[in-house]
């Protein structure tokens, strides 16, 4: 197999992988890792080788739109005025390719992808390239967030046949949808060391005409190989591997890659990877009295603190950017993704549970404040993302980070007031610049600003503790805190006058499910009903706008329409495994936070539908897509890596474990064991690739606690016991409210609840394990002792 690639100028292409340390067979990049242009091929090739996004001033008269103008996806709409004969993914394009015997050019990306924007501006807006694409290929555009199945199948090919993968992902297919050449970002023209997109198109066109049969044979061979390599099955195994062994190996692999100074698990770029932090917290809990347990806790807490102090966190508007381009968490890739906010809110809430340090709870609240303000539809749903790019001023070309960076001059003008009581002349602007590391020359290095667009600009990053900053100027710590917060608020108000980054107003069921968890868990841990209410509103949105009552199926997508309405594509895009898995998790978290059994009831129904649509009765585990929806695709995959988001199978395994605890239904425990067994070989080979699944394996082989609170949901004593449970980090548990009604949903699921009595008519707690319950307790302090055992 030959490869045609461009040597890596740093930071090209939003890239695939998962920021895993040494030991991951897919390398150490992550979902959006910047990388060079590359092409991989399954046959002999010659050597070498928009929606509402802010637009730059037009260089040509407005063109006639192509057929993407009729789509709902913000990403596809960004390409609606390209001089390319684009098709959406569908039968019309496939029929055309077969009828005209042309290869399919498949281009996959998403609307907030910086290098997708670059390739669109450089190549897809180019008249000559557009002509070449339209004449010699059938061109298909796919929003990876709408069709993760298409993305996963062809990303598997690109990763298997090249040094990596990412977005934009560009793959050439036979008319039967089998890949034969793939790559990521391409510059438009040849450079000294890089092959341009124009040249690649000419070479593939010529090869299709001259060596088509060879390409077809090689494509079939590669597809057959990928089918064999991607198979995940129980085989002749009866049980999953040892949790103790997998736990230990996963921890050791993480420990080897840990950055002692700055936290995280790679040199650069660095990614948040909440799945790893979740594993470390869980590992700590089961190894508290060992050095490794203390080490795991320290690794997770230090990483979270360094991230929160770094520029990857937006100190002005809150929320986290996608990743850091440096080891120090200083200069981010500025895109903000919903799934990061959702998972990090949970991680910081858990850090607060474990440490008691309000630093972490403040960060969690800040994340959700950002989501409520910037990423929430008025009906309760959550938008996908905000772009990294925006115009520095009106009618200027978008630049990455323009909305988020500051010059010293701007700070001085916004914060000129003198600070009373300082040991030297000091303005509030100078105080803020000292604390957050702003300089006249700017704090963004040339290696992180290859185009020179951010010279003299600064990213806020905490350089000193409040205590050190206060001591430096002879000020009281609380006075410094107040001054800095007031300064950040003034910066926030000033930033409202800047052109905003593009908002991807698409709403995905999966990411909305994660966000329901984010609000529910944080609200429960911090005892903030307003956050639990946001989770409830999110769940109501999902049921109202993304659930088909007749079929019991989830829809994958909906969109914000004019006037705050909600729109759907026609026909609807149905849900994938991750949609069901993440929504079910969100509903289980919401039930525990609100004790509203209707959310648990819906979770059970969705799990039944998930089992019907995705379960592999032969090999175990869940396929990522429905059989019918993926008809024609060369592979039907089971996602086997926890990365920027946990895999659908990892989350499903934990959901099944919890559902068994909530209902006692043996079928779900059997499915959980079968799923873990199917992924045995993957966990044995690279446990660090599946930290969320290893965590579930450990929970399965321990004993799940059923914590039952007998009482009136609205009563103060009931709430006190519930809050006691939420204040503690107990990942391997289900929290159940027994209201004494034998006809209630929970009583019908778990008949033993009717045998549990309140003591002296007070709210009473029981902790049940292995079908045996503890003695009843009525005081939160007694319950805390019981749960610590």
Automatic annotation (TrEMBL):
<dbReference type="InterPro" id="IPR012341">
    <property type="entry name" value="6hp_glycosidase-like_sf"/>
</dbReference>
<dbReference type="Pfam" id="PF03190">
    <property type="entry name" value="Thioredox_DsbH"/>
</dbReference>
<keyword id="KW-0964">Secreted</keyword>
<feature type="compositionally biased region" description="Basic and acidic residues">
    <location>
        <begin position="23"/>
        <end position="36"/>
    </location>
</feature>
<keyword id="KW-0217">Developmental protein</keyword>
<comment type="function">
    <text>May play a role in fertility regulation.</text>
</comment>
<dbReference type="InterPro" id="IPR008928">
    <property type="entry name" value="6-hairpin_glycosidase_sf"/>
</dbReference>
<dbReference type="GO" id="GO:0007283">
    <property type="term" value="P:spermatogenesis"/>
</dbReference>
<keyword id="KW-0744">Spermatogenesis</keyword>
<dbReference type="GO" id="GO:0005576">
    <property type="term" value="C:extracellular region"/>
</dbReference>
<protein>
    <recommendedName>
        <fullName>Spermatogenesis-associated protein 20</fullName>
    </recommendedName>
</protein>
<feature type="compositionally biased region" description="Basic residues">
    <location>
        <begin position="9"/>
        <end position="19"/>
    </location>
</feature>
<dbReference type="InterPro" id="IPR004879">
    <property type="entry name" value="Ssp411-like_TRX"/>
</dbReference>
<keyword id="KW-0221">Differentiation</keyword>
<dbReference type="InterPro" id="IPR036249">
    <property type="entry name" value="Thioredoxin-like_sf"/>
</dbReference>
<feature type="region of interest" description="Disordered">
    <location>
        <begin position="1"/>
        <end position="67"/>
    </location>
</feature>
<dbReference type="GO" id="GO:0005975">
    <property type="term" value="P:carbohydrate metabolic process"/>
</dbReference>
<dbReference type="GO" id="GO:0030154">
    <property type="term" value="P:cell differentiation"/>
</dbReference>
<dbReference type="InterPro" id="IPR024705">
    <property type="entry name" value="Ssp411"/>
</dbReference>
<feature type="domain" description="Spermatogenesis-associated protein 20-like TRX">
    <location>
        <begin position="65"/>
        <end position="226"/>
    </location>
</feature>
């Amino acid at each position: 197999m030959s490869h045609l690639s461009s040597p890596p100028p740093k930071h090209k292409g939003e890239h695939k992988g998962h920021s895993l340390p040494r030991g991951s067979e897919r390398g150490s990049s992550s979902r959006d890792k910047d990388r060079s242009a590359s092409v991989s091929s399954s046959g002999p090739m010659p050597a070498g080788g928009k929606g509402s996004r802010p637009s730059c001033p037009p260089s040509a008269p407005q063109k006639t739109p192509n057929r993407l103008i009729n789509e709902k996806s913000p990403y596809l709409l960004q390409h609606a005025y390209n001089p390319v004969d684009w098709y959406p993914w569908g039968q019309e394009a496939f029929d055309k390719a077969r009828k005209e015997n042309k290869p399919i050019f498949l281009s996959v990306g998403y609307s907030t992808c910086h290098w997708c924007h670059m390739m669109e501006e450089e190549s897809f807006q180019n008249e000559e390239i557009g002509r070449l694409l339209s004449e010699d290929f059938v061109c298909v555009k796919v929003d990876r967030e709408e069709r993760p199945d298409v993305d996963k199948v062809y990303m598997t090919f690109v990763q298997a046949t090249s040094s990596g993968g990412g977005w934009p992902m560009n793959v050439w297919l036979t008319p039967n949808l089998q890949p034969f050449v793939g790559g990521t970002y391409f510059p438009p023209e040849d450079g000294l060391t890089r092959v341009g997109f124009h040249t690649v198109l000419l070479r593939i066109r010529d090869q299709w005409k001259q060596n088509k049969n060879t390409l077809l044979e090689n494509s079939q061979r590669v597809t057959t190989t990928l089918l064999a390599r991607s198979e995940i099955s129980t085989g002749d195994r009866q049980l999953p591997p040892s949790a103790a062994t997998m736990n230990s190996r996963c921890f050791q692999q993480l420990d080897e890659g840990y950055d002692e100074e700055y936290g995280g698990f790679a040199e650069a770029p660095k990614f948040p990877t909440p799945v790893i932090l979740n594993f470390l917290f869980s590992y700590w809990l089961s190894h508290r009295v060992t050095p490794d347990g203390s080490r795991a806790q320290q690794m997770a807490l230090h990483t979270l603190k360094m991230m929160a102090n770094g520029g990857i966190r937006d100190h002005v508007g809150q929320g986290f950017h996608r990743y850091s381009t440096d080891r120090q968490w200083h200069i981010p890739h500025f895109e903000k993704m919903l799934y990061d906010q959702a998972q990090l809110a949970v991680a910081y809430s858990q850090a607060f549970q474990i440490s008691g340090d309000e630093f972490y709870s403040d960060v969690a609240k800040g994340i959700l404040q950002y989501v409520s303000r910037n990423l929430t539809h008025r009906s309760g749903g959550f938008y996908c993302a905000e772009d990294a790019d925006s115009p520095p001023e009106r009618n200027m070309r978008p630049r990455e980070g323009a909305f988020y960076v500051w010059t010293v001059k701007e700070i001085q003008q916004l914060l000129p007031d003198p600070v009373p009581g300082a040991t030297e002349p000091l303005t509030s602007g100078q105080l803020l610049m000292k604390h957050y590391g702003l300089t006249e020359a700017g704090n963004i290095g040339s290696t992180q600003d290859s185009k020179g667009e951010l010279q003299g600009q600064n990213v806020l990053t905490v350089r000193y503790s409040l205590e050190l900053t206060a001591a430096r100027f002879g000020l009281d710590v609380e006075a410094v805190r107040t001054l800095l917060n007031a300064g950040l608020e003034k910066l926030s108000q000033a930033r409202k006058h800047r052109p905003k980054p593009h908002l991807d107003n698409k709403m995905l069921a999966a990411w909305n499910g994660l966000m329901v968890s984010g609000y529910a868990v944080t609200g429960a841990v911090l005892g903030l009903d307003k956050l639990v209410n946001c989770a409830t509103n999110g769940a109501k949105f999902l049921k109202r706008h993304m659930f088909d009552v007749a079929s019991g199926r989830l829809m994958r997508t909906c969109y914000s329409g004019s006037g705050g309405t909600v729109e759907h594509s026609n026909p609807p895009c149905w849900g994938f495994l991750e949609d069901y898995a993440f929504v079910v998790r969100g509903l289980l978290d919401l039930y525990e936070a609100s004790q509203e059994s209707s959310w648990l009831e819906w979770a059970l129904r969705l799990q039944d539908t998930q089992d019907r649509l995705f379960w592999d009765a032969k090999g175990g585990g869940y396929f990522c897509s429905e059989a019918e929806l993926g008809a024609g695709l060369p592979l039907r995959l089971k996602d086997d890596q926890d990365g920027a988001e946990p895999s659908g199978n990892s989350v499903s395994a934990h959901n099944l474990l919890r559902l068994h605890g909530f209902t006692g239904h043996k079928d779900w425990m059997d499915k959980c064991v079968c799923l873990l067994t199917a992924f045995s070989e993957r966990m044995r080979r690279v446990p660090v690739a599946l930290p969320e699944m290893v965590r579930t394996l450990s929970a399965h082989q321990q004993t799940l606690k059923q914590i039952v609170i007998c009482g009136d949901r609205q009563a103060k004593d009931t709430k006190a016991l519930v809050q006691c449970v939420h204040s503690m980090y107990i990942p391997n548990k289900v929290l159940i409210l027994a209201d004494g009604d034998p006809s209630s949903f929970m009583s019908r699921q778990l008949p033993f609840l009717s045998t549990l009595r309140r003591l002296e008519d007070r709210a009473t707690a029981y902790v049940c394990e292995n079908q045996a319950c503890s003695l009843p307790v009525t005081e939160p302090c007694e319950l805390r002792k019981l749960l610590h055992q």
